[in-house]
Amino acid sequence: MTDVNDVTGAANTASEIVETEAGPARITWHTAEEARLVLAVSHGAGGGIEARDLRALAAVLPAHGVTVARVEQPWRVAGKKLAPAPKTLDLGWRGVWPALAEPGLPVVSGGRSAGARVSCRTATELGAHAVLALSFPLHPPGKPEKSRAAELLGSGVPTLVVQGGNDPFGKPGEFPEGPYELVEVPYGDHGFAVPKRAEITQEEAVAVITDAVLEWTGSLG
């Protein structure tokens, strides 16, 4: 069984700084030996690439032909605690895209929370092969009337949403019908944490994520 926390010491892991118009970003590469896809994933507005879902994907997918690139937005690299406006996040993502495409493979644009929104907003423009939206923030907590569904529905490419069953930013049942797939992580919150009383363990919850993404990436042409 792959240790989903063991992603930093592997021989096929490397980091690079990429200059963007929003400032320097950082890509941490987890390279597959015989890669057929690059999965680029960024973090949310309140955390970094050490999030449990991003670490798990980096630990599991390279053994299955998917190179994972965990992207730190410029504001995180600069040590700031608050994310900038969406247009600045998009600017940073555009800036790292040439480096993500450099291997010459199809690039799946992905991220968690705010990073998922960035991927949806820029997918068609950047020529993304598909979009992976982890913990898509459908609305601010307690404010379902402020829906961001248009961003998700407008991605324009094959899209997978992986959503916690108890995510205050949007439970799976709140999502509108549309041209995307949705996988629920039972009991999961916005960070895919599950309570101790849940019927599944934290490890099983993380496996739901990696299994779903592995199956989905395998189905992409």
UniProtKB/TrEMBL annotation:
Gene3D superfamilies per record: alpha/beta hydrolase
SUPFAM superfamilies to which the protein is assigned, alphabetical: alpha/beta-Hydrolases
Transmembrane segments: none
InterPro entries: AB_hydrolase_fold, KANL3/Tex30_Abhydrolase, NSL3/Tex30
Domain KANL3/Tex30 alpha/beta hydrolase-like residue range list: 35-216
Superkingdom of the source species: Bacteria
Coiled coil: none
Stated name of the protein: KANL3/Tex30 alpha/beta hydrolase-like domain-containing protein
Lineage, opening ranks: Bacteria, Bacillati, Actinomycetota, Actinomycetes, Kitasatosporales
